[in-house]
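Support request from a user on the community tier.

User writes: "When I paste my C-alpha cells into the form, the page sometimes reloads and wipes my input. The last time it worked, I copied everything first. Here is what I submitted, just in case something in the input itself triggers the reload:"
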C-alpha cells in the first residue's frame, strides 16, 4: 500500500494546471510571443495579439510597459502595481498570459524571483536556455508547479558549447527529470539550422512544453518568416504531430519579419491553426 501511495504522490506532482479551454482554438492555445512586437510596448503587444485573433500571449523580459510609461520595463522584477496594470490590460482584451521568456537567472535567488513572477501571473510555463542549470530549476518547477521549456536558437558554428539547438541534446538533459521540464520548440530556428521541424518534434515526443512556431521561406540562412503553410516548415504536419502527442502547451507566433506591420501576417498564422483539420 505504501508503494502505491508513493506512486500516486509522484503522479499528482506532474499534473500542473492546464491552459483553460476558453483560451484555445481548435484545441491549441494559439497566440503571440510579445517579441513579435518588440518595437512596441507591452500594452500594444496585448492589443495587437487581440487584433490577430490570438487568445494567449507569451511575454519576454525588457519590453517597455506603455506609451504613457516608456521608462518602465516589463520583467520579473516588476513591482505589484505594474503587474496589476498588465493584468488589467490583459483582462480588458480577453487575453491570457501563459508563458515568459526567453529568460535566464544568474543564481537560485533570481530563478526563484522568476517563478514567483510566473505564479503571480498564473503562467503555464517559463522559457529559458539555461539548460545547464536544471539542478537549480527543477526543485522550483516542483515547488511552484510551473513548466519550463528549453528554447533553441540556431546552431552556432563558432560556439560548440551551445548545444540546445539539437533536440537530441534536450532529450539527453531532460532524461529522468520532472515531466514538466522539456522543450520550447522553435521551429524557425531549426529551419535556419537546416533541421526538419517535424523530425525534431518527433524526437522530443513527450517533452514539448511549448512552441515558438515559425514557418520560413527556406532552410538555412537568408530566409525569413512567412505565414504558416506558405513556407518549408510543414506546419500542418507539425500540428498533427503535436496533437498526436497530446500537447497541451502554448503555441506562440514569434514573427521576426515585417516588424512594423506584421499583424496581418500573424493573423494568417492564427487562422491557419484555427482552421487546420
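"...and here is what came back when it finally went through:"
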Amino acid at each position: 500500500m505504501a508503494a502505491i501511495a508513493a506512486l500516486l504522490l509522484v503522479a499528482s506532482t506532474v499534473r500542473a494546471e492546464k491552459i483553460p479551454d476558453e483560451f484555445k482554438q481548435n484545441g491549441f492555445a494559439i497566440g503571440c510571443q510579445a517579441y513579435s512586437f518588440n518595437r512596441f510596448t507591452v500594452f500594444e503587444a496585448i492589443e495587437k495579439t487581440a487584433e490577430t485573433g490570438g487568445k494567449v500571449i507569451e511575454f519576454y523580459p525588457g519590453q517597455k510597459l506603455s506609451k504613457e510609461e516608456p521608462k518602465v520595463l516589463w520583467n520579473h522584477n516588476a513591482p505589484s502595481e505594474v503587474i496589476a496594470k498588465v493584468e488589467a490590460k490583459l483582462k480588458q482584451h480577453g487575453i491570457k498570459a501563459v508563458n515568459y521568456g526567453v529568460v535566464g537567472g544568474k543564481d537560485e535567488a533570481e530563478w526563484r524571483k522568476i517563478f514567483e513572477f510566473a505564479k503571480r501571473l498564473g503562467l503555464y510555463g517559463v522559457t529559458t536556455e539555461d539548460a545547464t542549470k536544471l539542478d537549480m530549476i527543477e526543485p522550483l518547477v516542483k515547488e511552484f508547479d510551473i513548466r519550463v521549456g528549453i528554447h533553441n536558437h540556431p546552431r552556432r558554428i563558432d560556439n560548440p558549447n551551445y548545444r540546445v539547438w539539437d533536440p537530441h541534446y534536450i532529450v539527453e538533459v531532460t532524461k529522468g527529470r520532472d515531466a514538466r521540464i522539456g522543450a520550447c520548440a522553435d521551429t524557425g530556428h531549426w529551419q535556419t539550422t537546416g533541421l526538419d521541424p517535424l523530425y525534431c518534434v518527433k524526437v522530443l515526443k513527450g517533452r514539448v512544453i511549448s512552441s515558438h512556431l515559425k514557418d520560413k521561406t527556406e532552410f538555412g540562412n537568408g530566409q525569413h518568416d512567412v505565414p504558416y503553410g506558405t513556407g518549408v516548415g510543414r506546419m500542418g504536419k507539425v500540428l498533427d504531430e503535436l496533437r498526436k502527442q497530446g500537447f497541451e502547451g502554448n503555441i506562440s507566433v514569434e514573427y521576426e519579419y515585417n516588424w512594423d506591420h506584421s499583424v496581418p501576417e500573424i493573423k494568417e498564422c492564427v487562422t491557419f491553426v484555427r482552421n487546420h483539420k
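Agent notes: The reload is a front-end session timeout and is unrelated to the input. The domain at 21-275 is CATH 3.20.20.150 (TIM Barrel). DSSP finds ten helices and twelve strands in the chain. Escalated to web team.
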